[in-house]
Amino acid sequence: MSGLTVFLDGKPVTLAELPLKGGGQAAVFPVVGDAGIVVKLYREPPGLDQERRLMRMLTMSPLAARPTDVSQPPELAWPTALARGPQGEFLGYAMRRFGEPRHVQLIGLFTRAQRLKLFPDRADWRFLLGVAWNLAFMTARMHYDNLVIGDFSSSNVVVDANGFVTFLDCDSIAFNDPVSGELFPCLMHTTDYSSPERQAGGPATRATDDFALAVLVYQLLTAGNHPFGGVPHDSASESTVKDNIAASCSYVVRPELVVIPRGTIDPSVLPPELLTLARAAFGPGVHAPAARPPAEAWLRALDKERSLVRVCQNRPLHTYGSHLTSCPWCTRVAVTGHDVFNGPVPVPVPDAPGQQEQTGAAAWAKALKVALLIVVVVILIVIATHAK
């Protein structure tokens, strides 16, 4: 069914009645008759500042908004047109569509069930490593273009089957107007990926992006584990990820301080150089932005590992870092019975009770036949003996 009609560059388009997704501030609608674009409409009047922001963005063409080749989507779902009402009122903007089944949210790679559903034949550790590389590459290119992601999380990045990533919520990006120098700040953030200064109301910066990137890379390389999960031993009540970030309490750096959640993957699955970067980000880098590894450092370390990945010979979808002498995922299966990457091995279904009874009856019948045959043979022998 059709919904609202809006105008893109003066041309009317009709939106579907139901949105593809919605949040507290906006909802994203498909366009009837055009599967290539979507329109993001704000729930409340966005105001002149947001309109000016988007008008300036339409005049810009950052590198990350353009694909590097025909097989790769752009790293940014950049605005393509303003969406207006019949009286010319600003309602939102249009952008290229990135959605299922070709693109899925990054958070979908954090659980085995979702990985097997979305990428059944390729979502192994090597694939996750490649996604992490693409994420670092996207972040580095945005910083090169003087753009700050700001609201950087696993929900506003999508991934395709080749591991390429695209950032969706470009209307929240922080940037300086290349002409006037005016700053358009990012007012949004996601607490589980926000550094302490960002949680305290500070501005989005490259350093706050670097903190979020470190968390996302760590989650990818541990199949979804958050580096600030768990409850500190000295916590009076249940601690949240936000609390642990503010307290600089990460089991990756100080495991003795935390009751680590059951099933957490040991940080040693990360190759040494990557683990060093993670410990810098989640240790001194929590409260010292300058100590956080930049996107380029992650990019170099991830690039080095991509060609060194080892392949397990015993189980499918088991690949791991070159620093390990044996498959950590097989070891985990042996200890816990849980395979991080493969689905459960089907258990042979036992025969139904009726079938078991039939099988037993058949065995008794066969035994009886053998016994009768033996009796007949014995009788024949006795008769033959007496006949002599």
Characterize the structure shown.
Residues 347-364 have low confidence and may be disordered. A hairpin with a 6-residue loop joins strand 12 (174-176) and strand 13 (183-184). The protein is globular and about 65 Å long. The longest helix is centred in the C-terminal third of the chain and has 35 residues, at 353-387. The protein contains 10 helices and 17 strands. The chain has a 7-stranded antiparallel beta sheet. The protein has a 3-stranded antiparallel beta sheet with strand order 8-10-11. It has a 3-stranded antiparallel beta sheet with strand order 9-12-13. The chain has helices spanning 47-58, 112-118, 125-144, 196-199, 206-221, 241-246, 272-282, 295-306, 328-336, 353-387, and strands at residues 2-8, 11-16, 21-22, 26-31, 34-42, 79-84, 90-96, 103-105, 147-148, 157-160, 165-167, 174-176, 183-184, 231-232, 258-259, 310-311, 319-320. Keywords: Membrane, Transmembrane, Transmembrane helix. GO terms for molecular function: ATP binding; protein kinase activity. This is Protein kinase domain-containing protein.
Task: Draw up the topology in text.
Elements: E1 2-8, E2 11-16, E3 21-22, E4 26-31, E5 34-42, H1 47-58, E6 79-84, E7 90-96, E8 103-105, H2 112-118, H3 125-144, E9 147-148, E10 157-160, E11 165-167, E12 174-176, E13 183-184, H4 196-199, H5 206-221, E14 231-232, H6 241-246, E15 258-259, H7 272-282, H8 295-306, E16 310-311, E17 319-320, H9 328-336, H10 353-387
Antiparallel strand pairs: 1-2, 1-6, 3-4, 4-5, 5-7, 6-7, 8-10, 9-12, 10-11, 12-13, 14-15, 16-17
Helix pairs in contact: 3-5, 3-8, 5-7
